[in-house]
Structures are given as structure tokens and as C-alpha cells.
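Crash report, auto-generated. Payload:
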Amino acid sequence: MHSVKVFLTHHYDIPKLEERLSEYGIPVYREKADCDVAFVLHGGLTNPLVFDGKKVLAFFLKNDNHLWNTCFVSLYMPILRHYYDKFIDLGGSKSFSEMADKIAEEVKKLENETD
Amino acid sequence: MIEPLSLYSEDGIYGSIDYGSPSVSKGFLFAAYVCQVERIAKEKGKVLCLGSGNAYDAVKFLMEGFNCYIAELYHPKVDILKGRQVKAFGQNLPFRDKEFDLLFCCEMMEHVPEEVADAILLEAKRVSKEVFFTIATGDDSFHTHICIHNAQWWMNKFESLGFVFINAQANPNFTLCTLDNMARMVARLVYFPDGVAINAFC
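Recovered output after restart:
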């Protein structure tokens, strides 16, 4: 079983998300920490090179923000593909609670994934 | 002052989860803009990214088909950059005169001691035919900016060293055009409210 840790930069403070993730027993790390898989929330403001092992970037595109979606998909993603091993789309505009549910589901999958 | 080789390393600020993110550095957005400048895009020439940190700008140039190299103290481990990274200080670049068509330097000059700024700019002028610099004019949250001056100060410096301006802007604002997945043209502004951008012939 892989050790998967969820990371979020200090630039963001999302207590509702963290609270919900803690119900799944998933802590959110604000500093680099050893793990097999780094599950990174918000790649735009995170230094991807601090993580060892497999790097997964979780992102979500807002249904009502066409400009940001285009910017992320056409500008950021092609570059970040050189820095991350995998991308996970958390889906459109979700509540923090729904996002946490989705993150927990993906973390579980990554923990059980065979290389 | 912390020695630069220690500061700009994995044991220094590049070990922080918050430092060197793609959004904050803006390097690749400015690189994307430069790739759209017709004169530069037509040539697909040899580019040197100086002080490129996590090197998003260099990755962008390589993806766009430029022959891009990096001169930096910190060498990020990114596959596409293999064989293209040279460890060097800006005032002593191990390259021939006018070896590069463009020297691209995004948000590095504010990190160097003021007493070596002229030497770095003259070395840039020596190795390249054209330069594109962006420089922050304020401090950052990591307090790594040690050469803080306003846009006019930097423009005067470039001019006094003999650079010929193509485009020089305080609080620069560039339009970046891209296509969305429906192939519609979308314009995005690359805005650097606390900085200066200078594109000049050498």
C-alpha cells in the first residue's frame, strides 16, 4: 500500500475542506513530508519540485469561469505535465464538502494502486 | 547575507512548498508572450534563460521549438531540461559572444547585489543579440529581493549600458492570445503590477 499525503500551500486556507478531509483521517500537509505519492491541491501556487516520488496534481475547473479554465488547460497544464506524473480533475464547481469526498476517493485509489 | 549557492538550492528556499510556484514567478507567462512576438517566433533561435529558478520559462521555450539553455545556480530535476543546464553566475557566463539570439531573464535581477548588476547586464549584452528582462520593483514575502529600485531606475541603467529599447514598460501589461478547446481565440493579460519589463537589442 502506498503512502499518499495531501499537500496545500500556505497561500490558501480552506478550513472547511480540511475539516471534512480530517473526517476521512486525511491530514493536509503545509510543508514537504516523506511519502510515496504527493497529492497536491492547487498547483498554480505550489512548488512542485519539493516532493519526492510520484506527484499528482488535483485541479478543478469552475463551471462559470471560462477564462480561467482556458488559461489553465491551454497554458498551465502543458507546462505542469513536465513537473507532475498525473492530473486528477476534481470536477466542476463543487462545495468543499463534495471536493473533500472526491479527494478522499482518489487518495484511496492511489493508496491501493499497483505500480 | 546568505551565500547565494546555499540560498538558491533545495536546502534553501527551493525546499519550500510555497517558493517558485508557476503562478507567482510568472516566468512561463512572459515566455509565452515572447513566443508570440512575430520577430522572435519566426526565427525559433537559440535562447538562454538566465536565473530561471524552477525553469517553467525554459520548458515553455523548448515546447515551442526553441533551442533553449539555462544558466542558473539551482538545477531543477525536470527531464526535458537534461543537458541544457549550466551552473553559472550571471556576471560570468561560459558562452561565446553573441551565441544566443535571445537572453530571457524573468525576476532575477532583484535577487542580485546591486554592485554586480552592471556586470550581469553587460555579460547578457555580450552573449546575446537581444534581451527580455522582467524585474520586480518591490520586496517579496521571502525577503529575497536585495536590489529594489523603481522602473525608471532600471530603464536608465539599461539605457546607460547601451541597450536599444524595443519595448520598456513600468507595471507591464502584455496580451497573451491562446485558443480554448473550441478553437476560439481567448486573450489574457499578463500583468506585473510591481515590476518592469524591458525588451531590448544589445
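Post-recovery validation: The longest helix of chain A spans residues 96-112.
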